[in-house]
Amino acid sequence: MKKSNFRLALMSAAVTVSLAVVSQAAAKPLSDADRGQILKNVDADAPQISDAALKIWGFAEVGYQEVKSSAVLQQQLKAAGFDVKSGVAGMPTAFIGSFKNGPGPVVAILAEFDALPGLAQTASPVKTPIAGQIAGHGCGHNLFGAASVGAAVAIKEWMVKNNVKGELRLYGSPAEEGGSGKVYLVRAGLFNDVDAALHWHPGNENTAVQGVSMANISGKFRFHGRSSHAAGAPEKGRSALDGVEVMDVATNFLREHTPDKTRIHYVITSGGGAPNVVPDFAEVYYYVRHPDPAVVRDVWDRVHKAADGAALATGTTVDMEITGGVYALLPNDTLGRVMDANLRRVGGISWTPEEVAFGKKLQESMPGQQPSVDSVKSVVPYKVEMEGGGGSTDVSDISWTTPTVGLSTATFVPGSAGHSWQNVAAAGSSIGIKGAVNAAKTLALTGADLFANPDVIKKAKAELDTRRGPNFTYKAMLGDRPPALDYRKSGAGGQ
Predict the structure, then answer these.
(1) What is the crossing angle of helices 333-346 and 454-468, to 10°?
(2) Where are the alpha helices (DSSP H) in 60-96?
(3) Where is the Peptidase M20 dimerisation domain positioned along the sequence (predicted)?
(4) What is the spatial distance between Cα 13 and Cα 17, in angstroms, rounded to a whole number?
(5) Among 83, 157, 297, 470, which residue's beta carbon has the most beta carbons within 10 A?
(6) Sign of dihedral through CA atoms 425, 428, 431, 432?
(7) Quick one: which of 143, 200, 173, 177 has its CA closest to 424?
(8) Do 377 and 315 sit in the same domain of this protein?
(9) Distance between CA atoms of 431 and 445, rounded to whole angstroms?
């Protein structure tokens, strides 16, 4: 994407949208009876939401290895009458569940279910790792997938009872944490006919604020050298680890000369097995982020040159594999206002005394002063934010190709950090389940609003065209590579 296109998108998004096509939310809201029926549908399905969420929490499967997690969600959709196609876009754990009731809007709901390496933790407010387990749901994707399926089932039941026309899809998207699963779905054209996409994410508060994220490219640099005895014959060796370390030094000096808001981070995922053996292989896993995808591509090329220079300096060779890459999230105010109105209808979350005690105990492990646990009872005021967004998400690529809207609910304890053991504990508790049910209700009401009011979709599409600028053509940040199905075999990290 050209820089001028991205700047135009930011300028369009930063200004309050004044066009008539996006100045109003739903023109013909659902009746109270419709809303009541949908909420009852979610409540009736809450035990299944809980069952799926806790099973997936226990499986704790990392990106592209979510075989059991994917199967649980697919089975629930099949039991509810959805047609399910698995293994889509070259990803064995990806799937699409579809319910079609004649011609009409195509509304999609996104579902994630991958865990993060290194965060195995019991559902306890005291740090208690699970022995032998390599991963945990520190981003709450066990809740994400389960609640999205619950919302889809509730909408489908409402559509059947009221003969609502259109198609509802549930996209099971694996490997959000660094594997960019949704990018392959977009690249394969599986969103080309989708009119609107809905998603949510576990969080510390209840909010339908529409914000931005950072574009990124991630990948692994693999250095190859020559082994030798580090003391007996050092002159015969060429250390692959030296190549990694020289690259890291060069990249760290590069930071001074990159555009503002650039983020570069890395971990050494392989560096040898013994100090007295010159390592003939070493690997370093890099991320480059910036709000502008064009800047990300430019900085990534410079990091790649640092790797080439390091290989030249150390007498080694290097190859690079891009494992992920996503756009910056593009907000949609039209859909955001509909989502916010429904979140306020659902309201905040009430904790039991036992849950309050759990939350306060968990907060003792967090540094500094923490927000009151009572904040989960409220909903954050709505707005569109064009600053911030330090993380990244593969939802972003969908947001540049179809109008997309999301929300977050309080599934974690206020003050807890993303990708933390505290989040794993909450995601496996009743606190996480309550937040997931709230999300399912909000998604279901919003999806029903879109089926009932196609004019809202038209307005959202007009806004998307304005925000992304003229002559936009989608091109995946990760190029034409196939899904990196083995990217979790070494290394760690998330979006």
Answers:
(1) 130
(2) 67-79
(3) 217-309
(4) 7
(5) 157
(6) positive
(7) 143
(8) no
(9) 22
**Which helix or strand (DSSP H or E) is residue 36 part of?**
helix 32-59
3-state SS, residue 460: helix
**Residue 421 amino acid letter:** W
Identity of the amino acid at 110: L
C-alpha distances out from residue 198 to 3, 86, 109, 212, 441, Å: 28, 20, 5, 15, 12
pLDDT at 380 over 90: yes
Q: CA-to-CA distance for 39 and 440, rounded, in angstroms?
A: 9
Q: Position 359: which residue type?
A: G
By the 8 A CB rule, do 335 and 209 touch? no
Q: Does residue 135 fall inside a structural domain?
A: yes
pTM for the full predicted model: 0.89
Q: What does the pLDDT look like over 331-344, one tens digit per residue? A: 999 999 999 999 99
Residue closest to 188 by CA, chosen among 97, 110, 88: 88
* Cβ neighbours of residue 138 closer than 8 Å, sequence gap 6 or more: 115, 116, 119, 418, 419, 420, 421, 423, 424, 427, 494
From residue 169, give the alpha-carbon distance in Å to each of 3, 85, 109, 375, 458. Answer: 33, 11, 6, 33, 19
Domain count, the chain: 2
- C-alpha dihedral (133, 134, 139, 143), degrees to nearest 10: -40
Alpha helices in 327-486 (DSSP H): 333-346, 353-363, 395-399, 421-427, 430-452, 454-468
Which residues have C-beta within 8 Å of that of residue 417, sequence separation ≥ 6? 366, 423
Same-domain pairing of 309 and 367: no
The string of DSSP letters for 275-340 reads TTB--SEEEEEEEEEESSHHHHHHHHHHHHHHHHHHHHHHT-EEEEEEEEEE------HHHHHHHH
Q: Of 309, 326, 343, at which residue does a domain stop?
A: 326
Per-residue pLDDT reduced to its tens digit, 410-431: 999 999 998 999 999 999 999 9
